[in-house]
TrEMBL record:
<dbReference type="InterPro" id="IPR036409">
    <property type="entry name" value="Aldolase_II/adducin_N_sf"/>
</dbReference>
<keyword id="KW-0479">Metal-binding</keyword>
<dbReference type="GO" id="GO:0016832">
    <property type="term" value="F:aldehyde-lyase activity"/>
</dbReference>
<protein>
    <submittedName>
        <fullName>Class II aldolase</fullName>
    </submittedName>
</protein>
<feature type="domain" description="Class II aldolase/adducin N-terminal">
    <location>
        <begin position="19"/>
        <end position="194"/>
    </location>
</feature>
<dbReference type="Pfam" id="PF00596">
    <property type="entry name" value="Aldolase_II"/>
</dbReference>
<keyword id="KW-0456">Lyase</keyword>
<dbReference type="GO" id="GO:0046872">
    <property type="term" value="F:metal ion binding"/>
</dbReference>
<dbReference type="GO" id="GO:0005829">
    <property type="term" value="C:cytosol"/>
</dbReference>
<dbReference type="GO" id="GO:0019323">
    <property type="term" value="P:pentose catabolic process"/>
</dbReference>
<dbReference type="InterPro" id="IPR050197">
    <property type="entry name" value="Aldolase_class_II_sugar_metab"/>
</dbReference>
<dbReference type="InterPro" id="IPR001303">
    <property type="entry name" value="Aldolase_II/adducin_N"/>
</dbReference>
Amino acid sequence: MTKAKQPVAARPTEATLRRALIGTCRRMNALGINQGTSGNASVRIGRDRFLITPSGVSYDAMLPAQIPTMTLSGRWYGARRPSSEWRFHRDILAARADAGAVIHTHGPLATTLAVLRRDIPPFHYMVAVAGGDSIRCAPYATFGTQALSDLALAALAGRRACLLANHGLIAIGATLEKALALAVEVEALAGMYLRACAIGEPALLSAAQMAEALALFRTYGTPDFPDADLVHAGTRLPRG
């Protein structure tokens, strides 16, 4: 049987992405994974261009016209200066074809682990949602520096999220929505891990168990997800 072709979604306009960037940042704060004007976000708008949140502007007051445009060569255009963390946004988008958006948060739980300079180990299979069998914590470097960007890129190798020592969290995704969902998930995992550590030593999954979870995550939520006992019998119930 030939699979039906899925409709191709229209690419969002730049105006739509500017509004989405503001909405994402407001959601970050509303969800409790960020606060104030801390954190930042970016979204790709072309092969070598991206939008990034401006420096020092309240998300509640931010306007689409205040969002600067940057190129991967480091040039920026607009009325407001880009976030001080533009380097790791640029470098991630340049290095990772799978990244359409980058989110950086200072969530209380993920940042607590980052202050402890701890990776999130495979204590739960959902760690695989970030693309590997752990979520690494990059070593410390001063915010806004090339050193921090280099360390973040290394921690993100083979991953879609990492912690930044004494700083916060980075999550990437194909879209702003997916990057935000991942940031929320990592914040939740950080909270679970912290609570488990407060009680005792968490039991960790084996490399084989995490490899199985990672393989399943590659098709999770798609028609190709393997489940021999689940039979799709059609889109409508039979009459009678």
